[in-house]
Amino acid sequence: KQIILLPGDGIGREIMDSAKVVLQAVAHEYGHSFTFHQHAIGGDAIDQYGTPLPEETIQACQNADAILLGAVGGPKWDQVAVHLRPERGLLGIRKTLGLFANLRPVKGFQALLHASPIKEEIIQDSDILIIRELTGGLYFGQPSERRDNGNAVVDTLSYTREEMERIIDKAFESARIRNKHLTSVDKANVLESSRLWREVVEEKAKDYPDVTVEHMLVDACAMKLITNPSAFDVIVTENLFGDILSDEASVLTGSLGMLPSASVRSDGVGLYEPVHGTAPDIAGKGIANPLGMILSAALMLRFSFGMEEEASEIEKAVNECLEQGYHTADLRIKDGIQVGTKEMTDKVLENLT
Amino acid sequence: KQIILLPGDGIGREIMDSAKVVLQAVAHEYGHSFTFHQHAIGGDAIDQYGTPLPEETIQACQNADAILLGAVGGPKWDQVAVHLRPERGLLGIRKTLGLFANLRPVKGFQALLHASPIKEEIIQDSDILIIRELTGGLYFGQPSERRDNGNAVVDTLSYTREEMERIIDKAFESARIRNKHLTSVDKANVLESSRLWREVVEEKAKDYPDVTVEHMLVDACAMKLITNPSAFDVIVTENLFGDILSDEASVLTGSLGMLPSASVRSDGVGLYEPVHGTAPDIAGKGIANPLGMILSAALMLRFSFGMEEEASEIEKAVNECLEQGYHTADLRIKDGIQVGTKEMTDKVLENLT
Ligand SMILES: CC(C)[C@H](C(=O)O)[C@@H](O)C(=O)O
Ligand SMILES: CC(C)[C@H](C(=O)O)[C@@H](O)C(=O)O
Description:
2 copies of one chain form a homodimer.
Chain A: E1 2-8, H1 12-30, E2 35-38, H2 42-49, H3 55-62, E3 66-71, H4 86-97, E4 101-107, H5 120-123, E5 127-133, E6 145-147, E7 152-160, H6 161-176, E8 181-186, H7 192-205, E9 212-217, H8 218-227, E10 234-237, H9 239-250, E11 260-264, E12 270-274, H10 291-303, H11 308-323, E13 326-327, E14 337-338, H12 341-352
Parallel strand pairs in A: 1-2, 1-3, 3-12, 5-10, 8-9, 8-10, 13-14
Antiparallel strand pairs in A: 4-5, 4-11, 6-7, 11-12
Helix pairs in contact in A: 1-10, 1-12, 2-4, 6-7, 8-9, 10-11, 11-12
The structure holds 3-isopropylmalic acid (IPM) (2 copies).
One 3-isopropylmalic acid sits between chains B (87, 90-91, 243) and A (189-190, 219).
């Protein structure tokens, strides 16, 4: 398997090393052969090539079986022109590779739940998979421009029925192998695109009679994620709603630094990245939490390579570390032992077999 | 002062009666003269006139000094064609009257904080005013239509610089008389409209040197509202972001049924409504919580009539009731006394003078 590593900026490089050694250990144990090639993206690529997504990186990714991404961005590039910003690299790679389905599991770790801003009794049984459409909507719709001598502006929320169908299919398939409940989120009382979305969901629902479907308005969903998160199983929504709701959901468990994400397309190729950012303030200090990146590598094994057993083993090892009290500086565990990036990675390795 | 009452649907009628008697008591105490005229909107108007916003209602509102709205919508009208739905009445009245600024205060009541899904230490000092642009953006932008034989769809996020300027001015003015901190929320790393928004905020900031401004991405704001709500003072954002974030924020205090909202324009005319919905399941039972409606009437006195003292008196009376342990069925107070809509209203009246 050809795996492309895009460490990106800030703590990206440190945590990528952790993911790599964990993958190497798993490959050794199960007799897999993974090859790794590292390329530049984001601010790192701006510094080296003058563009956040160099042609060479695109080509490498196009030939890859899967991609691991650290994180992109940082204050260093804040003054760069918009179309050359580090985030453009991320948007560009999603779009170029057609990674239309962003999967964001939100599930707390028992040892960390006490750190949640939400009361423990409300959050403890939550296990949500948010599926966000990633290559359409307001992110890429045209026109997106100033008008009337700069005195007006438009952006366009644009979708084809086909783009809706494939993400909604993905959501039904995911619900089918989980708890068979799908919440489709839209703003159908205002947006025409949401009304088409609802129609497509209704049509597709006929193909998945074993899955129950409910429609929810995005504002209502933003409330219910806080008041009753355990009522959700799979949530599916368009790009921008998904951006907001998945980030909202990510803080519920009290361990943002732990959460992985997957951006995939139908043939299984995918890009995997932790939900947290580049954390420029702690970059290079060896104290970053590598677990979100390691868990992203586990998602890669599951979703892109179909290696369920290997993925579960990594996830169990991570959980073991927390149960043993090991945590990085961003986390708190009662009577726990604070460790750095490297020690945390070593603990995961120890718990692997 | 001419006040138009639009009770609307569900519990709207019951709680409107409560607001009216409280206003009458205040008018009596302070020697004001308020006249009330009631008109139909939403499902109620659909049943009576076949349209959610009858011409007669529009005209009455156009001549009013202020408008009180209960709530609109309910399952009864779910099958009605989209452009005739109860919510259209609400969107129509906002747009027709040019009520561009939606003000949503989010502040908990000490007696109710324990009911928050958020840990008390996180939420207790929060006092946020969310200012949402209400007549632009994706809600009204054109085109909003199906294309390519129904196989594609677009909605348009459209703003003029002027529409941005007036809401941003409103936000700076509000911050100035509060804690002088403004958070402007956008998605400037993706949307051209957000980049213009940021420019306008930067320009306006020069006119309000006493107010500190920060820019925040909408996804980051959705997180921070949960992890650190007390870091906010005034938040200003465009229509749809404001819809999502203000509803998200409304559940933080644990007392959605208590929250008022104001939708105003520059000359002081405004529409005031509670944040909660029509609650069709308890409509007509005399158990609805009238406090959100009563507090909306207080906002009307403050924002539309400049009657600060009168507004504060109502707010204090409501707080007194809670401190005395009185609560409706939607709330819980330890060792409290559960009462119905009418008794709750009577308790507010008792606490008034
Ligand atoms: C960096 C930004 C453009 C991006 C997005 O909005 O998609 C990020 O917030 C994310 O969710 O991955
Ligand atoms: C009913 C609906 C159209 C409305 C909106 O989205 O503005 C509501 O959610 C609100 O916030 O008042």
